[in-house]
Amino acid sequence: MYKKIVLLLVLVMFVFCGCAKPQKEPVENTLNDITKRGNVIIGIKTDTYPFGFKDKNGKYAGYDVDLANMIGEKIFGEKGKVKFVPVTASDRMMKLFTEDVDMIVATMSVTPSRLQILDFSNPYYIAGQSLLVKKGSKIKGLRDLNGKKAIIVFGTSSESSLRAAVPNVSIIGYKTYAEAVKGLKQGKADAIVSDDTILIGLSLKDGSLVLLPKRYSREPYAVAFRKGQESEDLLRVVNDVIEEASRNGTLQKLQKNYGIKKY
Ligand code: GLU
What we know:
The protein is an alpha/beta fold. The chain has 10 helices and 15 strands. The chain has helices at residues 2-16, 30-37, 63-76, 92-97, 112-115, 158-165, 177-185, 196-205, 232-247, 250-257; strands at 40-45, 47-48, 52-54, 60-61, 82-87, 103-104, 118-120, 125-127, 129-134, 149-153, 170-174, 191-195, 209-211, 219-221, 224-226. The strands form 5 sheets. It has a 5-stranded mixed sheet with strand order 11-10-12-9-13, with helices on both faces. A 3-stranded parallel sheet has the order 5-1-6. Helix 3 (63-76) crosses helix 9. The protein is globular, with a radius of gyration of 24 Å. The protein binds glutamic acid. Glutamic acid binds next to strand 12.
């Protein structure tokens, strides 16, 4: 009996002195992890000229890549600290959630549904959805797609906006833009629906394709992070980079050089 009372007392003391409470974990902070690790890992597209692509020497290049390099330089105060990981529209969120990357700079639009599961920086570019068709096509706008077939790339914002705007369209999905173009050229569908900036790149590479002039949405591109406190400091640094590059004209200059500046 005496033994039981002592045990009970010890237990009560243990609980009241707070020893039984789990120690509060320090908040995980991605920026700390990055500085400790010595590089920042950024998800980049390789099939989205002129935002993310590989140049003739096999090096990552494009508007998104330049922004990613500015972010690396801001964090470490020197160049060459960015590790690029290729992502596609369909796997970019997964690579963020599985911590393969610290952030994504990949022509990613801020949308209400994505805001529920991701954090975003301020926008660094504004695109708009449009249609890419074969030269001579009868499709002149979104409405002409009623009862027809249209191609989207999986994981992009085009699918939901297309479904909402043209209920009777049949949608065919591909994993990459290269496959989407192949599908269009083979006559699998009447148009590709995606961001104008991406479609311009595709039409410049292939004279048999035409980008239609009308825009059907507003696509603010922003850097995406895992949602929560762990990303707060990193997000602040990235917003500083975007704010500074916009204020001193760097972003505008890059847009002009890549032919994506809108007047
Ligand atoms: N900006 C659009 C999106 O975030 C499409 C561009 C892309 O292929 O990434 O879904």
